[in-house]
Design a protein that fits this description.
It is built from 4 helices and 8 strands; from the N terminus they run E-E-H-H-E-E-E-H-E-E-H-E. By secondary structure, it is α+β, with helices and mostly antiparallel strands. The strands form 2 sheets. Strands 3-4-5-8-7-6 form a 6-stranded antiparallel β-barrel. Strands 1-2 form a two-stranded antiparallel ribbon. It is globular, with a radius of gyration of 15 Å. The protein starts with a strand and ends with a strand.
Length: 138
Amino acid sequence: MARTGGAWHRTRMPLPQSMGRLNRAGPNRLIVHVAPWVPGFGVVHHRGRRSGRGYRTPVAVFRRGDEVVFAMVYGTKTDWVRNVRAAGGATVSARGHDLRLSAPRLVHDPRRSQVPGPVRLALAAAGVEDFLVCDVEG
């Protein structure tokens, strides 16, 4: 708990990275096949920074005009986020389309204005305040 402005507030963190590692070992292997078709989800295709190996990671993703917004459910230091930032972009499969992305940037947004209204409550419950925003090419 943290004290802010005379009141006590519960400090929330995004989901623990240990949960992400567990998901990567099990459920993600199945989810990666359905996520590109489920609204609010997708699969980011990226290359390892050191290995050059290709990866597919299921993500929470939303289109905003000429941008795509990823909710940082496991925080900003996950491998896929670091890979996308190091490469300067990636490809995301979402809602049956493949989009080439560039200019990745981290955005801290405690109001969660980067995502649709109904999603804000779920992200608030999970403590998510950070987003990766990318430009959609062409």
